[in-house]
Amino acid sequence: MTDRRQLLALGALAAGSSSLLLAAPASASASPTTSGKPSRPLVIGHRGASGYRPEHTLASYELAARLGADYIEPDVGALARTLI
């Protein structure tokens, strides 16, 4: 019975600490300026850095991140139970 209580306590602690991480505010650099507009454009690497590496490859995604992409949009989705 003690093992079960320890497991429940550990689970509650993990859930509580993860909720604190999820509720943490964003960093100051990501906040908008006083005009309500972002301070710089959002850079999205479509299919990674497809102009430099083959699309949808790890090399393309890594290069996009090194070039400063904020997000990588892979253009991959599910269709008829098959990953395309």
What does this structure look like?
The chain has helices spanning 2-22, 58-66, and strands at residues 44-46, 71-73, 78-79, 82-83. It has 84 residues and is α+β, with helices and mostly antiparallel strands. It has a domain at 40-84. The model is unreliable at 17-26 (pLDDT under 50).
What spatial form do the alpha-carbon principal axes imply? Answer: extended
Let me know the average pLDDT. Answer: 72
Structural class: alpha+beta
**How widely separated are the two ends?**
48 Å
Main pleated sheet: 2 strands, parallel
CA-based gyration radius: 20 Å
Secondary structure: helix percent: 25-40%
Fraction in beta strands = 5-15%
What are the secondary-structure elements, in order, as H or E? HEHEEE
Low-confidence stretches: 17-26
Count of DSSP H/I helices: 2
Strand order of the largest sheet: 1-2
Q: Number of DSSP strands?
A: 4
Condensed summary:
The chain has helices at residues 2-22, 58-66, and strands at 44-46, 71-73, 78-79, 82-83. By secondary structure, the chain is α+β, with helices and mostly antiparallel strands.
Q: Strands, helices and their partners?
A:
Elements: H1 2-22, E1 44-46, H2 58-66, E2 71-73, E3 78-79, E4 82-83
Parallel strand pairs: 1-2
Antiparallel strand pairs: 3-4
Please describe the structure with a list of short key phrases separated by commas or semicolons.
2 helices; 84 residues; single chain; 4 strands; alpha+beta
